Amino acid sequence: MTAVAAVTLSALAASSYADICYLVYDRNDQVVYRDMRSPIDLSGPIGPQVNARWRGGALVIVGNADRCIPLDSVDLRTVANLVKPDAAAPQAAAPKADPAKAPKAAAKKAG
Fold first, then answer.
1. Which of 33, 38, 80, 95 is 20 to 30 Å from 49 at the Cα level?
2. What does 28-74 look like in DSSP terms, one character per residue?
3. Facing residues of 62 across strands?
4. How far apart are CA 106 and CA 111, in angstroms?
């Protein structure tokens, strides 16, 4: 193999690794890890390593690194508000009834 071919293959291999995004979902399908660096050692069994760190979790490897924003750089409270605005917003208390404005029942006498 020529030196040019070796350098070209090395560059292609490096670019393909740079385009990978690693995501880990917990058992509730929430993203708990997202980065272009693997969270585990990929040379060994994947399942036991993921399960040791995130019980019931799943590792997903995707090739779209353009949207792979590391989870550490994202404010999870902001994301939670964007994803589930109703769950994140405090619930307003129901208004209390004013006894003075409540309708009064008329008592009927049986005669």
1. 80
2. TS-EEEEESS-SS-TTS-HHHHHHHHSTT-EEEEES-GGG---GGGS
3. 21
4. 15
Candidates 25, 43, 44, 46; CA nearest to 34 is 25
Tokens representing residue 80 in the block: 């939670």
Residues 6+ apart with CB under 8 A from 80: 87, 88
- The pair of structure tokens assigned to 110 is 């049986």
CA distance 109 to 14: 93
Q: Is the dihedral of CA 40, 44, 47, 49 positive or negative?
A: negative
pLDDT tens per residue, range 54-80: 999 999 999 977 888 888 655 555 545
Yes or no: say if 65 and 19 are a contact pair by the CB < 8 Å rule.
yes
Residue 80: Cβ within 10 Å count: 13
